[in-house]
Amino acid sequence: MPASSRTRKAASPRAERSARRWRRALRIIALLRERYPRVRLPLAHRDPFQLLVATILSAQCTDAMVNRVTPMLFERYPTPQAMAAARVRDVEQIVRPTGFFRQKTKAIINMSRSLVERFSGRVPPRMEELLTLEGVGRKTANVILSAKRLEPWGRGEDRADGLGIVVDTHVRRVSQRLGLASTDDPEKIEEQLMSVIPRQEWDSFSLRLIYFGREVCTAKRPMCLTCPLKRLCPSAPFLGNPPWMRRRRRARRFP
């Protein structure tokens, strides 16, 4: 096939038929599962409460930095009850390296108080309940619900009411490049991914996409020439910078 024909096809992933996109998504899932057979959350924690706190702290911060901060934080405040009674300035001092430390301190203390006052100190199992907690949006709630099926403390629990797909910066970028998402809105990206990814894959798919986005499909220099997904990726001919993503960047710059 001439290069120009490949370029025309790759330049318009929105025109892809839904059945073809679904089959392509299944092949992507299989290759990612082969590359990452076992997936674990990168945030260090021992229970759902600690994961909830760590996920809130991870906003605009690397997982590595969060994992350096949380051992001291959880040693002093291992439970919702302990965190709810913490002094603001003491928590701020510990979480300062994660950035936005005042907002994050307020969020994790108020979230802990809500857990104690409204949920008997337990992290609720439903999306709608999680979203009532301070500092918790759909991404954070999906992390908690997905972890119930992936982490040792949640094994055997199939119930995860309202579970969707975690959409962070890596999932957004890689799903756009792969032509599985055609928007910048995280909730719409989640809806688009849920329409082509089988439900039983939701919890592990986002983690595999995050691993892949960190190792291969990086933000600045994606390894398109050696990428194991290049035959399935409409962005490969453009070395990770396809026209549809350039157009969205320009639209954001000049509203």
From TrEMBL:
EC number(s) reported in the record: 4.2.99.18
Gene3D superfamilies: Helix-hairpin-Helix base-excision DNA repair enzymes (C-terminal), Hypothetical protein, domain 2
GO biological process terms, semicolon-separated: base-excision repair, AP site formation
Cofactor entry: [4Fe-4S] cluster
GO molecular function terms listed in the Swiss-Prot or TrEMBL record: 4 iron, 4 sulfur cluster binding; class I DNA-(apurinic or apyrimidinic site) endonuclease activity; DNA binding; DNA N-glycosylase activity; metal ion binding
Ranges for domain HhH-GPD: 57-215
Binding site for [4Fe-4S] cluster: C217, C224, C227, C233
Catalysed conversion reaction: 2'-deoxyribonucleotide-(2'-deoxyribose 5'-phosphate)-2'-deoxyribonucleotide-DNA = a 3'-end 2'-deoxyribonucleotide-(2,3-dehydro-2,3-deoxyribose 5'-phosphate)-DNA + a 5'-end 5'-phospho-2'-deoxyribonucleoside-DNA + H(+)
Keywords of the record: 4Fe-4S, DNA damage, DNA repair, DNA-binding, Endonuclease, Glycosidase, Hydrolase, Iron, Iron-sulfur, Lyase, Metal-binding, Nuclease
Cofactor note text: Binds 1 [4Fe-4S] cluster.
CDD domains with a match to the protein in the record: ENDO3c (cd00056)
Entry function: DNA repair enzyme that has both DNA N-glycosylase activity and AP-lyase activity. The DNA N-glycosylase activity releases various damaged pyrimidines from DNA by cleaving the N-glycosidic bond, leaving an AP (apurinic/apyrimidinic) site. The AP-lyase activity cleaves the phosphodiester bond 3' to the AP site by a beta-elimination, leaving a 3'-terminal unsaturated sugar and a product with a terminal 5'-phosphate.
Family note: Belongs to the Nth/MutY family.
Protein name: Endonuclease III
Organism this protein belongs to: Candidatus Segetimicrobium genomatis
Gene name tied to this protein: nth
